[in-house]
Every structure is written in structure tokens, then in C-alpha cells.
């Protein structure tokens, strides 16, 4: 691990990781902590990270408003969590793979997906989950925790194929840690010692269920003990700390020291400022002011202060960034809203070759459309 | 713990005569049924993801926490096998757990507990241990929900002996069937068509009536052709029936199965013996769906009455597409009418 | 990694002409197929509980560890969702995993990975990500196995679009179908009738032939009635066919489906158009079993040819009893004959 | 916990349990360890425990031989593991519930099942899994780990019903800890703080898969950390230690100290001397002499030595015990082999009431039997 304070938190005498305070590099005001070491990131990278966090926050606002206007379907916001998402994305090498949930829009973007592609599933397009060529991102996982064994399998496959330079990074939430698939996937990862990094975005809530009610274990990171792998807690609102920890975990996955196991479970401690999704009303289950403490450590503010303090950001650049973000977002929304799908494409790619019965079903649908027109399909229940 | 003897209960028929009623939609009727049974029987408890503080993602359990406290209305960790597995354990200690799975598409992690245990405990223990549990799940498509949220794989559960499978299509049935399911001594998978949750309201008697399990109901009488269906598909079927009556003079009988397991073969067969023609409508993929069982059963029992092939109007054999295409995937009145016409003109 | 182009392969028909053969039982043929494909394609690997050191509880993977090493023949922890989930991940990185589930009854914990992911990855990613994986499982009853070891719930998998489901009934088919399944670009659930594992031997060509998926085969030609079946039930069906020929002069055609999904509707229909009468035989519980789909399909496509109800001879709708009663639960030649006679005399 | 050396193993400074050496009371020769305290068991109880362990071993021998003769189906032996089974059984109060796997014959017997009932499923009798009245044992669980969430649910139910004096004890193997149900069941147990004790009979093997390959975690007990509950390792070949640890865990489940959670995960470290089942051939995957070390600590020998040293056992009593065991076993075998089942009972208890379709199917079976006789059903594949 590359951060200095990590050593402080994990004295050699304690055999089990993950029970400590989260690792930080920036304090709540964006100043570098005295015992912390900055990760190796160029000035440009630092500014770019800031821009991406800002883009993510703006994306959230635009998406929520599109949903309110009925232009896209249910959306899972990420405000408060963009720092961790962007930072894990920056830690990845191009060849590494990312397995996201429905909430990791920013992580996907940083790892190469264009904004329009992020919006496609929200527009319900048939090909919504097709990923642009050469982007190493999997379609989002909605059934909770099911990506965990698959991430292990992908990392295992890369290892078997001798791609020593490739690791797999798997995101999931605090609620996901209760599912059997989390357990089975991490246990396999430990046993087969695969190059995978598991990032738990512990945003304190699984819809309405608070973290304390999700499990009686004190931390999520300490669950790593059950799999003989390392568990690390990091301040998920500190993009630099998340970057450093994730980067180190990816390095270890690819090049472990003697006797060290490759996989790591990272608990990125954070908070979901907003609703679970646009279909959710958090006032039913939590106090509005709970977020206040967390907002004091806001990732966007901290990065802004950090950059400003270090002379890397001023009002002009900020305005330039804002303009760029808005233009990008508008273009993406426009392009994706123009798209439509031919209904018969639902028969495409069910199998490599279309079996006879499906051929018949497709023909039936085609003939109905011809006979009655497409409007007839959209008549609603009276 | 006190329980109420079953003979205090009355059937919907009884209760509608003279008793008070309230206008409700289906999700309100579900909530009302839970409230009613929890009030009557202390052993009844509700557990699942987001059912307590949040009142359920569809608000089906709203208010129960306030009325019955956090011992009987319980938010669980996010783990479906854990929910169903603990519910089986609770049921075996004579509690009456009503477990909610947030969507039918998330029932699969609990599939093993359902088929390997809930379904068999009575049989394997020769009647000694029983699982009087209800597993509720919102079910079916049509609300532009995200991927995996529109599943309607009732056939999976129907194929497992020992489970009962119930799907209401109206608020009044939802209440009566859910009460009957809670009182049923066997495990019941109770699938709630979420397209109907808020689609319409009707009068629902406020007393604690049961709509008996295992009994299909004739929603519309007719002589030319029978359409067998259940859940959300009952409604486009009734529209289709009106349309073909108006446009083609076809007199359609519509049978709402309500209980999918055990099947009410008698009502199915009686209707077919009258009409000699049938269409089965369901949302699930056609192949190996429950429509196959209904067609196979009818031709088995009544071939000599059969005047046309039994037609299936069903979901296509593809994964439910993202929402832009769901109107094309799901049977609509359009496709049902087409099926009826074809069957009648054979 | 090198792979072999598919055009090097030949079908069973081709290969039997003139090529070398060895006498094998079904489990040996499975092993031989695995050995053959692992030798041809480095991407093929085997994983599961007890498959490596122990060679599988039925010895289906014996010797593979010695031949191909512990990177390609892997004992996993005891976790079926982990096995199938990692196999999906492996397949998506262009490996060709052949995962073993120790018994079909222990596939349920992996049900979610199979139906929510393996089945849909190609479709949801619009062809970009694919899951060329085989999940093998011993299947069916008749060997006096403990509880949960005799499941035959093929219908669960057939109802899920995107999966293929294959059940061989003979050693030669087992080899050819398994090779075809491994080479198939889509996920295949490969169910091996363990009652047949060691029941008999036959000549199996030693070359790397494929028996094409999606093609049923006529095991016995006849004109009076068609029996549709698969897996272990093929054998009592053939006995029953001989018996009713001898005793009643009934000329039975026997169709072995081999691939249950996608169904070879053409062969099914062709046979029925010839005989006009049909019996479907399967071990699984009757209700919502695959027999329903076959009966429904045939009457849909060929009602005018239908001279009698299509009869289902199936497992009863009860959990498979402990072994003392399994001969009563499973269809035997006795019940098949009875079904044939009833159907013919209708 | 009542054993003295337990305190030594869990110094207050170590926050995580279950990473230590297994707790012992008897040394390998059956002498009481100097730092150990004997559990409160009467002399009669101690001798009875010995007799039950001996009965269990003899039961194994008889069952294996019955299986070889084709008189019973596949049998899962317990030799080497009887000590832990008998001891956990003794720790239970009558009202406590036991959830066994296919291997815990002796635990079931100690908790009230008669020997004939143990044999019934092995004879394939329809009612094989019916449990004698008032015996608080569940039918054995064959699908691995599925009993764990059910045990949590039963304990929860008892708690809700105010049966403060009832706890639930759940057995499973080392292999079972890899299943999702183990994880989900233990996590629920921790969250709902139910009166349940989970006993992992870590016999080093899951069929052919050794413990080291099952999970990368150093011990099974340390997995308790993931659920915020206590994990304890105990020498599973030391019946007195297993008794003490289980007893203490059951006490805690019923009467936890302030702030203490009720559930415990006990790892009983032991060894399966023989085959996984009569269908298994361990020579395919392990060395015959691996067992030798373990046999040095054999539970039967240790208890014999302990009793003899303390003047509680002599040759006469030993002979008496042997005689009693053999008589009991022979009687049980005889009684159960005489039993047969009416085939139509397979339709009983599928549901509370037989649905019409099942009524028809039963009638069909009855008429076939009448027409053709029972032999016709047993004709084999030619
Ligand atoms: C298997 C499964 N069960 C239930 C759901 C419904 N659901 C969607 S998100 C969610 C909460 C997830 O919480 P967490 O893992 O903490 O992730 P977060 O949404 O907080 O990022 C639930 C219960 C699901 N998608 N999949
Ligand atoms: C879900 C499931 N998968 C696979 C099996 C097959 N099986 C039976 S016992 C066993 C090994 C169990 O090992 P362990 O949990 O250590 O218990 P032990 O047999 O050693 O007592 C396996 C894989 C099963 N019964 N259930
Ligand atoms: Mg969360
Ligand atoms: Mg073991």
C-alpha cells in the first residue's frame, strides 16, 4: 500500500485487517493530513479527477430531472459517492475490467464509457447494455451481489490466460455483503488467489435498511478475515485516499509479495446523500439532517479546496469546466433521446442462432405490426 | 400466543352479503389483508427487505410497523435465501411468517429453500413438520421497470409439488386470497401483479373473509371460446373479449385461475366442455409456461369436445426486453383478440 | 490460447462410417468426451466439487487431472452459485468452462446465476458478451440414492430463454452431444441420466464428433403411436414398445428428444402426423413438466391429425419418495405400456 | 464459558475470536490438562457419555456392514466424530432443538431418537424422516448448509414466543461454510441476536476436498468475525471440551451477559477416520496414514482412559456396556427391517389436504397395483 498512514493503522501485531478507522489523505477541508503521502498523480490528472467528479454530480442532477420529466426510467443517483467512483476508475489500467452495479455511472465513465452509453439503458433501448468496443466494463448488475462470483471468474480466466497485467475490479454496496453470492465469490477469490479487487461502496443504506441492521459485524472490511484476504477501510469521500488504496490493491492483485494473497476487500465508507432511486422517498425511513455530517466531508468540495490550495484551480478554469460539462451532457442526452429500436430486435442475440420457434414468433410479431400498426401495441389498460 | 380457529372465517360470498366495504386498489387490499390477519392472529408476522420502516417499495406493508411493532414487522438483511430460510424456521415453530421478496425476479436466490425445503417438509417428515408460510412477491411486467424487475415465472413454482401458487387479479380477490393463504397450513407463493397494484379500485369488504384457494372463477360467461388467464392478463383479456364481441360477435368466456397450484381442473374442464375452444394467456415465455399445462390437461380430459387447437398467447421466448419494447413483449388486447379470432375461425 | 475451428468437427453420422470405436458405458463416454475436447482446445477446463483428485463422485472426470493438470481440472469449494458464477466469469473471458454440479438437486443454489445471468448475458449485452459454458449434472432417479439425489426438473431450465438443455440417453449420444455442447457458443445445461451411467455399453467412435444440438432422433419406427421421451426413460419405453408389439400388435414409434431446449418441433410434429397418437414419458412430476409443452405443441400444430388425447406418463405430483417406493414413483415399462394401450384404444 | 483454559486462549486484548488453538480439557491420553476445569457432569453422566460414544462407534460398524450386505442404502459414517456428536447432545436441554446433517446419528440419538428411527431413512421407508413424538430433532439436512438459516428462524421463533429457556443447535461440516446459506443464516443470527449455537464439525474433508482448499481463512471459527458473533475453536476429539464449550454457548444463547450477543460459532476440530459415505473411496484422494495422528487423540480411547484413571470404569462394566450395545443394535435392526410401506403413502402429507389431481394419481397407482401386482413395478431395465 502506498499511503503512509496505512502502516499506522495496521500495526504488525494485529493479525486481522479491516477493524480500524478509515484511511484518509485529505482532511475534511481538503488539506493533506500530516501523516499522509500523496499518491503519484500528475497535476493534470488531479484536475481531471475533479472535473470528472463534477461531471458526475451534474450528471446526477440532469438524470434526476430527466426522470421527473418522464424522459428516462428509474435512476439511481450517486451524489456523495462520486469521489469513490471516480477514484476507483482512475486506479484502473485500460486492460483492467470493471463490474459495476446500477449506481456506478461515474466509474464506468472514467473507465471509458461515453455519456450517451450511460443513458441508453435508462431510455429502455433494446441495446441499452451493449458496451462500446474496447471498453472493459460489464453491463450493470441489478440482482444484488451476483457480480461477485463472476468477477472472481473473470479474474481467474485472465490469470489462466497469462494476462498477468490484468485485474478485475468489482463494485457492490453494503447491502450486497449479506447475500450468499458475496460470500461464495470472495471465498473462491481467496482460495484461487485471483487478481481481483472488491470495492464495497458502504453508503450506510440499502434502500431503507441502515448499515447497523445489515450485519452485526463492526465493519465490512473485517469480513475479509473470513476469506483469508486483506480488508481495508478507506474514507470514501476522500478521492485521493480511495485512489491510493485501490491502486495499491490492484498492484497487489497483479504482483503480490511473497506469501501475500492477491485479492483485497476495500470498504469505502461513504454516504448516499439522496434517494436510493428516483422511485424512493428517503423521508420515509431517515432524518433529512443525517447527511449533514457527511456533507462536511463532501468529495467535490474537498477536491476543489485541495486544488485551489495548490494553485491548480481558479474561477476561470472552474467556469471552463462547467461549460464543458454542460455541453457534453446536453449532447449526450440529445443523441440518445433520438434513438429508437426496432421491436423485432428483441429476438436478436437470445442465442447465437435463432431457433425455429423464435423465428416463428418473430414472424408473428412482424405480421401483427404490419396488420395493425405500432400504436395498437401501446393501448393501455382501461 | 393465541390463534383464531378457522371456523370463525367466512368466504367472500358470505361476507359480501351485508358487510361493510371500502374502495381499494390491489396494493391497498394486500395491506388491508395483512393488517386484518395480524390483528386476528398474533403469530402472523411480516419480514423482508424494506418492509418495516419504509413500508415496502410498493407500500404494501405501510403502517404495519406502527400497528404491530418491530417484533412482528421486520426489516431483514438483503438476502433472499436468508429471508425464506428463516421464514421456514419461523413457520416450523408455529409462527405464521409472511415473507416479502422485493420482486419475483429476486426469488431465485431463495429457490433452493423453496423447492428443497418449504415444499417438502410436510411430506418428508410424514406430516410432522409443516411450513405454514406465505412468500409474497410483486410480479409481472408492464410498468417500465428496470431489468429483472418484470419476471413472471410462476411455472417454476407450479412444477414443484408441495407448494401452492396464488395470483390475484382484483383487489377483492387479493384480500381474500391472501387471508386464505396466510391461514393455509402449507407454503404459498403469492404473486401480486404489480401492473394492477394501482390500476383500479373496487369495493372490498372490510371483514376477514377468505377467498378459497384452489378455485378458479369465471369472470365473464360466454359460449364460443374460453380464455384461461390470471393476474394482470385478466384485464386485457376482458377488453379483448368485449372487442371481439362488438366487432366479431364472438361470445367469450373468461376464466381467472387465481390459484395456479393446485389447479382447479374441474372449472377449467367445465368451461371447455361448454365452449370447445380455448386460448390461454400469460406473460411468461411460452415454452414450458403454465399455458402448456392447461392445454395439455384440457386435451387430456376433453378431447372429444375439442373443436380447435388450444392457442397460447404468451410472452415470447426471449428475456423480457428493456422497457422501450415491453409493450411488444407482453400480450396485449391486440394479440389476445387475434388469438381468439384464430381459435374461433379454425 | 489456441482453439480449434469448428469445421474440423464431424457429426456422429459421418464419424461412425469407418472410424475407430470403443465400447463404453455412458459415464465413460462423458469422460471420453471431456478428454477429447480438453485435448483439442486448451480453453476447455473442468471445475466443480470433487472433480479433480477424486475424479467425480460418479468417476466422470477420472484421469483428467493427471492428463491436463490442476489449472484445468479444478476442485472448488462447496458452493454451487460460486461454481456457476465463476464459470460464467471464466466463459466471458473466452475460457470454455465445463462446470459439474454434483447432482441436479444441488443446482438450485445456482439457479439465480443460471437464469438471471448465464441465460441472458448475450441478449442483454446485444451479442457482445457471451457465456460458452456447460453445466453438467447427474440427473434422475432409479438408483436408490438418498433424498434430493434423484431430481429431474429439466422443465425449470427449459422455461428460461437463452439456456440450452441437453439430455443424452446412450453412450454414443452422450459423447457427441457433450462435445457439441462444449463447442456451442451458448450456455448448455447438460443433464446425465445416472440410471444409464453404467446400465449398458455400446460402440462409441473415438474421434471428436458432434451430435448436433436441437435434433431429436427416432429410436424406433412405428405407425400406430409415437412415444416422446428422453434420458433414462428411453429404455423402459423401448421395452414397453416391444412388449405392446408382441402382446397387442401395436406398432410404436419412439422419439428421443435429446435436446430439450430448443425443442426440435419439426421432428416431433413429423412423427405425430404419421401416427396421430402420442404418449409423453418423463420422470419429473407431471404438472407443468415438459410433457405439457410437448402435448400443447403437438395439438397446436397438428390437431387435425389427432386421433386420441396425448397421454402423459410421468412422475406423480409428489416429492420423490425415499428409495423403497421409487419404483412406484418412476414410470416403468408397466405404466408406459398402459399409457400406450389407452392411447391406441381411445 | 466454563472451562478455565478458555480465558487463556482469549485474552481481552484480542478483539477477534476464533484464531487460537483449539480448547482442550483432556490430553491425548485422557488426563485432565493442568489448566483445565472439568465440566459439571456426574459420574453417571460421564460413564453414560462413554457408553454412547461406544454405541456410536459400534453403530457405524453395523451400519457399514448392513450397507455392504445391501440391507440399507448409502450410509455416512461418523467414526472419529462420535465424541463431538455425543458431547453436543449432552449439552442440550430436552426443550432445545437439534438440526443435524446426514452424519449426526449419535447427536440425534443422545437427544432422544431411538436407534430404529435412525435406521429408517437408510431403509428407504416412506416415513423415514418422521421423528418420534416429543423428540426435538429435525429430519436430517442433505442439501448442504440449508439448515443454517432455518436454525436461525427456529431460534427466532422460540424467542418471539417467549420460550426464553429454549435454544437451537445447528450442525454442519467444514464444506458447508462455503455455501451462501451458511453466510446468510449466520448473518441473520447476528443481526436478530437469536438463541442459536452453530457447530461446525470440521472433519478436515468435504468428500475429497481438504479443509485448506475449502477456504483461505486460517480457521473456521474466525469467520464469526464477519457476523459480529463469538467464534470458538475446540478439540472435537475431546468430548469434555466439546461439552463444556457447547454448554457455555447454549447458556449464553439463553442468558447473554449485558452487551453480549447470543449466537456462537463453534469450530469442533476433528477428523473423519473413514469414507465420506459407503459410496466413497478415500484412497482416491488421501493417504491412509493421514488419520494416524488423529487416532492418537481418539475420543473413545481418551474417555476410556479418563474413566479408568478415575476409577469409574473396569473390565466388568466394559463388558456389560458391550453387551447392552449389541443387544440394542440387534433389536433396532430387526425391528426396522421388518417394516414395509404401502406405496400409496407417497401421496400422504404432500399437502394438508390431497388435491383432486393427486387423488386421481393415487387411484391410478392403486388400480395398476391391483391389475398387475407389485412385482410388475420392480422389473428392471434389461
Ligand atoms: C437479489 C436482489 N434482491 C433485491 C433487490 C432490490 N434492491 C435493489 S437495490 C437494493 C439495495 C441495495 O443496497 P446496497 O447493496 O447497499 O447498494 P446501494 O443501493 O446502497 O448502492 C435492493 C434491496 C435486488 N436488486 N436484487
Ligand atoms: C448443496 C449441496 N451440494 C452438494 C452436495 C453433495 N455433498 C454431499 S456431502 C458433501 C460434502 C460435505 O462436506 P462437509 O460440509 O465438510 O461435511 P462432511 O460430509 O465432511 O460431514 C457434498 C459436496 C450436497 N449434499 N448439497
Ligand atoms: Mg448501500
Ligand atoms: Mg467435512
UniProtKB/TrEMBL annotation, chains A, D:
Basic and acidic residues composition bias: residue spans: 1-12
Alphabetized UniProt keyword annotations: Oxidoreductase, Pyruvate
One Pfam family it belongs to: E1_dh
GO terms of molecular function: oxidoreductase activity, acting on the aldehyde or oxo group of donors, disulfide as acceptor
Superkingdom to which the source organism belongs: Archaea
Record-annotated Dehydrogenase E1 component domain positions: 55-340
InterPro entries: Alpha-ketoacid_DH_E1_comp, DH_E1, PdhA/BkdA, THDP-binding
GO biological process, one term: sulfur compound biosynthetic process
Listed Gene3D superfamilies: 3.40.50.970
Region (Disordered): 1-21
Database matches in NCBIfam families: PDH_E1_alph_x
Stated name of the protein: Pyruvate dehydrogenase (Acetyl-transferring) E1 component subunit alpha
Automatic annotation (TrEMBL), chains B, C:
Annotated stretches, region: Disordered: 1-20
Cofactor or coenzyme needed: thiamine diphosphate
Extent of Polar residues compositional bias: 1-18
One GO MF term: oxidoreductase activity
Keyword tags: Oxidoreductase, Thiamine pyrophosphate
Entry keyword annotation includes Iron: no
Entry protein name: Transketolase
Organism: Natrialba hulunbeirensis JCM 10989
Lineage summary: Archaea, Methanobacteriati, Methanobacteriota, Stenosarchaea group, Halobacteria
Amino acid at each position: 500500500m502506498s499511503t503512509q498512514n496505512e502502516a499506522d493503522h495496521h500495526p504488525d501485531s494485529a493479525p486481522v485487517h479491516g477493524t480500524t478507522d478509515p484511511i484518509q489523505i485529505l482532511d475534511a477541508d481538503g488539506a493533506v493530513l500530516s501523516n499522509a503521502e500523496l499518491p503519484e498523480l500528475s497535476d493534470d490528472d488531479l484536475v481531471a479527477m475533479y472535473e470528472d467528479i463534477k461531471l458526475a454530480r451534474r450528471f446526477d442532477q440532469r438524470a434526476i430531472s430527466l426522470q421527473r420529466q418522464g424522459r428516462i426510467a428509474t435512476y439511481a443517483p450517486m451524489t456523495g459517492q462520486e469521489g469513490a467512483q471516480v477514484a476507483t476508475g482512475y486506479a484502473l489500467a485500460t486492460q483492467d475490467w470493471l463490474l459495476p452495479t446500477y449506481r456506478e455511472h461515474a466509474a464506468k465513465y472514467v473507465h471509458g464509457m461515453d455519456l450517451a452509453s450511460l443513458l441508453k439503458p435508462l431510455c429502455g433501448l433494446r441495446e441499452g447494455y451493449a458496451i462500446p468496443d474496447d471498453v472493459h466494463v460489464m453491463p450493470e448488475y441489478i440482482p444484488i451481489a451476483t457480480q461477485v462470483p463472476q468477477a472472481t471468474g473473470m479474474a481467474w480466466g485472465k490469470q489462466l490466460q497469462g494476462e498477468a497485467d490484468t485485474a478485475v475490479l468489482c463494485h457492490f454496496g453494503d447491502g450486497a455483503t449479506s447475500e450468499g453470492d458475496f460470500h461464495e465469490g470472495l471465498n473462491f477469490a481467496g482460495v484461487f488467489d485471483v487478481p481481483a479487487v472488491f470495492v464495497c461502496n458502504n453508503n450506510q443504506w440499502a434502500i431503507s435498511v441502515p448499515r447497523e441492521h445489515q450485519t452485526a459485524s463492526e465493519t465490512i472490511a473485517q469480513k475479509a478475515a473470513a476469506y483469508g484476504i486483506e480488508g481495508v477501510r478507506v474514507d470514501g469521500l476522500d478521492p485521493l485516499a480511495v485512489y491510493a488504496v485501490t491502486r495499491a490493491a490492484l498492484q497487489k492483485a497483479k504482483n503480490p509479495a511473497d506469501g501475500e494473497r492477491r485479492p483485497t476487500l476495500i470498504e469505502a465508507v461513504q454516504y448516499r446523500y439522496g434517494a436510493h432511486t428516483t422511485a424512493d422517498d428517503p423521508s420515509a425511513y431517515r432524518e433529512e439532517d443525517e447527511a449533514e455530517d457527511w456533507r462536511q466531508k463532501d468529495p467535490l468540495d474537498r477536491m476543489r479546496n485541495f486544488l485551489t490550495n495548490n494553485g491548480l484551480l481558479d474561477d476561470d478554469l472552474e467556469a471552463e469546466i462547467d461549460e464543458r460539462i454542460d455541453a457534453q451532457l446536453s449532447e449526450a442526452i440529445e443523441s440518445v433521446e433520438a434513438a429508437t429500436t426496432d421491436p423485432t430486435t428483441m429476438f436478436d442475440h437470445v442465442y447465437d442462432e435463432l431457433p425455429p420457434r423464435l423465428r416463428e414468433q418473430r414472424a408473428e410479431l412482424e405480421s401483427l405490426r404490419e396488420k395493425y400498426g405500432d400504436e395498437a401495441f401501446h393501448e393501455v389498460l382501461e | 400466543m393465541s390463534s383464531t380457529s378457522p371456523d370463525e372465517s367466512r368466504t367472500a360470498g358470505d361476507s359480501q352479503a351485508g358487510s361493510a366495504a371500502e374502495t381499494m386498489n390491489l396494493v391497498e387490499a394486500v395491506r388491508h389483508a395483512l393488517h386484518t390477519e395480524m390483528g386476528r392472529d398474533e403469530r402472523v408476522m411480516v419480514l423482508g427487505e424494506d418492509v418495516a420502516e419504509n413500508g415496502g417499495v410498493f407500500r404494501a406493508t405501510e403502517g404495519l410497523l406502527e400497528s404491530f411493532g418491530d417484533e412482528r414487522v421486520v426489516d431483514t438483511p438483503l438476502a433472499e435465501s436468508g429471508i425464506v430460510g428463516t421464514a421456514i424456521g419461523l413457520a416450523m415453530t408455529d409462527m405464521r411468517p409472511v415473507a416479502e421478496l422485493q420482486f419475483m425476479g429476486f426469488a431465485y436466490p431463495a429457490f433452493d429453500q423453496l423447492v428443497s425445503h418449504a415444499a417438502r417438509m410436510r411430506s418428508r417428515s410424514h406430516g410432522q413438520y409443516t411450513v405454514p408460510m406465505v412468500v409474497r412477491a410483486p410480479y409481472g411486467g408492464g410498468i417500465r421497470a428496470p431489468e429483472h424487475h418484470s419476471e413472471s415465472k410462476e411455472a417454476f413454482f407450479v412444477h414443484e409439488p408441495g407448494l401452492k401458487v396464488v395470483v390475484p387479479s382484483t383487489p377483492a380477490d387479493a384480500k381474500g386470497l391472501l387471508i386464505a393463504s396466510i391461514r393455509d397450513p402449507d407454503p404459498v407463493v403469492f404473486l401480486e401483479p404489480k401492473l394492477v397494484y394501482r390500476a383500479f379500485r373496487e369495493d372490498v369488504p372490510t371483514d376477514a373473509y377468505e377467498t378459497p384457494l384452489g378455485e378458479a372463477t369465471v369472470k365473464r360467461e360466454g359460449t364460443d371460446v374460453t380464455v384461461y388467464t390470471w393476474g394482470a392478463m385478466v384485464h386485457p383479456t376482458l377488453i379483448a373479449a368485449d372487442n371481439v364481441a362488438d366487432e366479431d360477435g364472438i361470445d367469450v368466456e373468461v376464466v381467472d385461475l387465481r390459484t395456479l397450484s393446485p389447479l382447479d381442473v374441474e372449472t377449467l374442464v367445465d368451461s371447455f366442455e361448454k365452449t370447445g375452444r380455448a386460448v390461454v394467456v400469460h406473460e411468461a415465455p411460452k415454452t414450458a409456461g403454465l399455458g402448456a399445462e392447461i392445454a395439455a390437461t384440457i386435451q387430456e380430459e376433453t378431447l372429444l369436445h375439442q373443436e380447435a387447437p388450444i392457442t397460447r398467447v404468451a410472452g415470447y421466448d426471449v428475456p423480457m426486453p428493456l422497457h422501450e419494447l415491453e409493450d411488444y413483449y407482453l400480450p396485449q388486447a391486440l394479440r389476445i383478440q387475434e388469438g381468439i379470432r384464430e381459435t374461433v375461425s379454425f
